[in-house]
Design brief:
- The chain has a domain of 116 residues: Winged helix-like DNA-binding domain superfamily/Winged helix DNA-binding domain (Arc Repressor Mutant, subunit A), CATH 1.10.10.
- It is built from 30 helices and 7 strands.
- It is elongated and about 95 Å long.
- A hairpin with a 3-residue loop joins strand 6 and strand 7.
- 53% of the residues are buried.
- It is mainly α.
């Protein structure tokens, strides 16, 4: 039992304390024991059986448990730039190699096995301390200074890249990660080189550079080779799922996500397991397995976020759920996760929210009627997305169009929708709703039919919302059979589209069809159902729209009192959300009510005469 100093670490077996740069860090008991045993026997390798018997005496556990402990130990060593000191000897066991690490990376080793360049006040020590404290700007600055004087280990390049990603500057991380791949390869650490190669594939995919992403993904496969039960292979499968999704191959994407999840589960690695699970859920949603997909995603987030994952992994987990919620119109769930995401970002040193986070929040605010704030937020998102996720720019422009449409700024809405289309995104169903407002029902119908074609994940996930809008437009253009066909598809698959927003849209579509068939009383009941569903969502704009349609119908049915009640409620909502479009509709109905009152008064006077 003793004290071991290596790099900026100090492990004290007597007090069971592990310190990094003088500050004690939390470590699980088994992980502490694993490091202590390896340090105590650093002159040799320890077999898996020896480690299993020492760490779990008298208990039968699998090798996956040992791999999980080793993975956690490597994560701790990474904080001090010493993860490569822990060597995994295939089919045998583990060894900690302090002398070899010091000699290969920094020249002659110190007697205590430490890093001769990590003296107090050095730039590299400041950088590693900043990473541990999630001070990303400080870390990036210190890493740059350390690089200028040759203090960096290869693992530091990955931490530097992480800091840049957390700052919303992933493009600057690309050359650092490429250096890491090269340096690990030169040192014979081929499997370790696969990790930065996979990160490069991720960054290029998010920049919309699919060909480059596929190239790095293939390079990672070569580096992993036959290590199919490794953490790196699990991450490779996860990245492969994302690439397959980008290539509109949801079935293949689901299969790869399932593989990633299984690797992570076997290794008891929460990062790999949660990433595989979150995308398994994502592609289940695409393929119509809604309940199971939602369960996967919620569990993945809980698993990953309770395991102290890095901010990039946490962001992926949150963003994935929020993209799915927004595409499905699952606004209640989106609202819950958005607030959680914002708090989580701030708690992990991400004071400047990512472009995706701003976009998620902007659309939720727009649905809930806070239009001015939503517009400001989506414009800020557009600026940030240009840096960290340019592929989502088209979606942000679509959201901007929806906000302008809700406010009644039709010219601005059309400009935004056209820009969204030019950026490679489908701006439906918002553009079709705008065309309806402009009296272009035929164009709206054709555009919505086109939107249902294709196998990409946005098309598959937005299908329910597009279908419900199509049914409404089909009825309005006297395509009653097509409207009925779509409504049947929506109502016979309630397990696929259980969201209140899609049920509300379906009710509105049924009302439109019933109005065309002059079944006004039944249409009124459907609009009442739509009002209830929109209230459940918490969308005052959609509630007001449905109430105004109901008021107009009640006037036709001669129910003046009911129409006045619906109009008064809608008018209050229109004033609150500051929507010129809703105000115009209210004024038109007020005029209609005044006209009917004059007619009624005239009839009464004539009868009395």
């Amino acid at each position: 039992m003793g004290i071991y100093r290596f790099g900026d670490f100090e492990l004290n077996e007597n007090s069971r304390a592990l310190r990094l740069a003088g500050s004690e860090i939390e470590v699980q008991p088994l992980v502490f024991d694993f490091l202590a045993i390896l340090l105590r026997h650093q002159d040799r390798a320890l077999s898996k059986n020896e480690l299993l018997e020492t760490l779990w005496p008298g208990v039968t556990v699998t090798e996956a448990s040992l791999q999980r402990v080793a993975s956690l130990a490597r994560s701790i060593l990474r904080q001090g730039g010493m993860e490569t000191a822990l060597r995994n000897l295939p089919r045998f066991g583990y060894r900690i190699c302090l002398d070899q690490l010091a000699a290969s990376e920094n020249g002659p080793a110190r007697a205590d096995g430490g890093d001769k360049l990590s003296s107090p006040g050095s730039a590299i020590l400041s950088a590693r301390t900043a990473v541990a404290g999630r001070k990303w700007y400080e870390a990036a600055t210190s890493f740059a200074k350390a690089d200028a004087v040759g203090e960096l280990l290869t693992a530091d390049l990955e931490e530097w890249a992480l800091a840049l990603e957390c700052m919303g500057r992933p493009a600057e991380a690309i050359p650092l990660l490429a250096r890491a791949v090269t340096e690990y390869g030169v040192a014979g650490e081929r499997l370790r080189a696969a990790s930065p190669a996979i990160t490069l594939a991720k960054i290029h995919l998010e920049r919309g550079e699919l060909a480059v992403a596929k190239g790095w993904h293939k390079r990672a496969a070569q580096l992993i080779d036959t290590a199919a039960d490794s953490r790196e292979h699990g991450l490779w499968c996860w990245m492969g799922a994302r690439i397959m999704g980008a290539e509109a191959e949801p079935e293949q994407a689901l299969a790869l996500a399932e593989q990633a999840f299984e690797v992570g589960r076997r290794l008891e690695d929460p990062v790999v397991e949660s990433l595989g699970l979150i995308y398994r859920g994502f592609f289940k949603l695409c393929l119509g397995e809604t309940k199971s997909g939602q369960e996967d995603q919620d569990f993945a987030a809980a698993l990953g976020l309770s395991s102290d994952v890095d901010p990039i992994v946490g962001g992926i987990l949150y963003c994935n759920i929020l993209w799915a919620c927004r595409n499905f119109g699952d606004w209640s769930r989106a609202n819950q996760w958005t607030f959680g995401y914002e708090d989580w970002c701030r708690g992990h040193g991400l004071e400047d929210l990512s472009g995706s986070c701003r976009l998620h929040r902007a659309e939720v605010l727009g649905v809930h009627g806070t239009l001015k704030e939503a517009e400001a937020l989506v414009r800020a998102a557009l600026d940030q997305l240009a840096l960290d996720a340019p592929w989502a720019t088209g979606d942000a422009l679509r959201v901007l169009g929806d906000i302008h449409l809700a406010a009644g700024d039709f010219a601005e809405a059309e400009t935004a929708y056209r820009a969204s289309h030019a950026a490679g995104w489908d701006p439906q169903p918002g553009l079709a709703l705008l065309q309806l407002e402009q009296g272009q029902a035929e164009a709206a119908f054709s555009a919505l039919e086109r939107s249902l074609a294709g196998n990409g994940w946005p098309t598959l996930q937005r299908r329910g919302t597009v279908l419900a809008t199509l049914a409404k437009v089909a009825a309005r253009t006297d395509r009653r059979e097509r409207a009925k066909e779509v409504i049947v598809e929506l109502e016979t698959q309630p397990q696929r589209w259980p969201m209140a927003s899609i049920r509300a849209l379906t009710a509105e579509a049924k009302a439109e069809l019933l109005i065309q068939e002059e079944r006004l009383t039944e249409a009124a009941r459907e609009l009442q159902a739509a009002c209830s569903r929109w209230s459940e969502v918490g969308s005052p704009i959609n509630v007001a729209d449905a109430r105004l349609s109901l008021a107009a119908l009640l006037i036709q049915l001669g129910d003046r009192t009911g129409a006045e009640l619906e109009l008064a409620t809608a008018l209050a909502a229109a004033k609150k959300v500051d929507s010129a479009r809703l105000m115009r509709r209210c004024e038109e109905l007020e005029g209609l009510l005044a006209g009917t009152q004059k007619i009624a008064t005239g009839i009464v006077q004539a009868l009395r005469a």
